[in-house]
Amino acid sequence: MTAKIITLALICLVNFAFSQELQPFRESVKHLAHSIEAQNATKRKAFVAILQFYNEKQMVTRFSYVIQDEFNLAFRDGNGIEIISQSLVNEQFERNQWALIDCLNFRSLTELSEKLFEKVNHIPDAFIYGTYTHSGNVVKLSVFYVPYGIASNGYELKTQFFVEEDLEGLLW
What we know:
This protein is α/β, with parallel strands linked by helices. The protein has 6 helices and 5 strands, in the order ααβαβααβββα.
């Protein structure tokens, strides 16, 4: 019984420490999410699909999924945007063997919209995707918001944040 309590305490301590290291990142994502909501204030909720985030080598990493999760959490508290099931979006990418870099055109985003409509009965009003670079302790994140799959109507938001050296394994 004592061993279980000690193990649980250690797990909580590690999670707390990891959570504290990610705090600047979380705040940056929250700020971007609020900016997106403010720029897209309408009378009805926008249904948004969060696509992939990739690094400067155009690779999806573990950190890419962390970014997706943080955006999902950041939009959960808002009123203007409803996120389409992340698992369904990721499933479509895997099932169709898509890579984000190959899907950034109107035809591919329309096809993705149709596939998502079949699953959730909503066509995305917009897509969010992005890139990030990592140099030393600084991570730069660029997020693209593309309404209706039309890139010329979209916009880009940028942020940067500092990370601890311990997170390098997560970034690559």
